[in-house]
Specification:
3 helices, YjgF/YER057c/UK114, 60s Ribosomal Protein L30, Chain: A, five-stranded mixed sheet, alpha+beta, single chain
């Protein structure tokens, strides 16, 4: 892990996370038998993140029963958590070349069809933080249930620069 001064990406992440009450310096851990992230070669795989702030779930329930804006807020929290995990794993977001793929799962009411609009909130953060390389592939899917009744779950796959010893 790098001990150099925070980059502008790291500072931007810190500011965006603070807006939703997320502390990016708190260690993110998984339960036994899986990892929050795996770095293999120069690809970082980040496990699905639900909109947890501290030990509380920030947005629960089905999109369409919760407002579109609340679902979008859930997506922002999820992607910020994923980026905070990336930072913890690789030391600084300066090593993040780009997000290759984002999967967005939206717990949806039967008639809710705005999964893409929910996912846009997370894409906006990735694009702003990583521009000009903020574009990414994405899938947004409506699902019947998510863990802990979360409204959104997001996982990421990212390209990473090799560390400099």
């Amino acid at each position: 892990m790098s001990t150099s001064a925070p980059s502008s990406r790291d500072e931007t992440l810190r500011q965006l996370a603070a807006e939703v009450g997320l502390d990016i310096d708190t260690p993110f851990r998984a339960v036994p038998r899986y990892e929050v992230a795996v770095l293999h070669a120069e690809t970082l795989y980040i496990s699905g993140q639900i909109p947890r702030v501290g030990d509380q779930l920030a947005v629960c329930g089905r999109a369409g029963e919760v407002s579109l804006e609340d679902a979008r807020r859930a997506a922002r929290i999820c992607v910020l958590r994923a980026l905070a995990i990336a930072r913890q794993q690789i030391g600084s977001l300066d090593r993040l070349v780009r997000v290759l793929r984002m999967n967005v799962f939206v717990q949806s009411a039967a008639d809710f069809t705005q999964q893409s609009e929910v996912a846009d909130a997370a894409s906006d953060i990735l694009y702003a933080l990583l521009a000009p390389d903020g574009g990414h592939t994405r899938t947004s899917v409506g699902v019947a249930q998510l863990p802990k009744d979360a409204t959104v779950e997001i996982d990421l796959t990212a390209a990473v620069r090799p560390s400099v010893a």
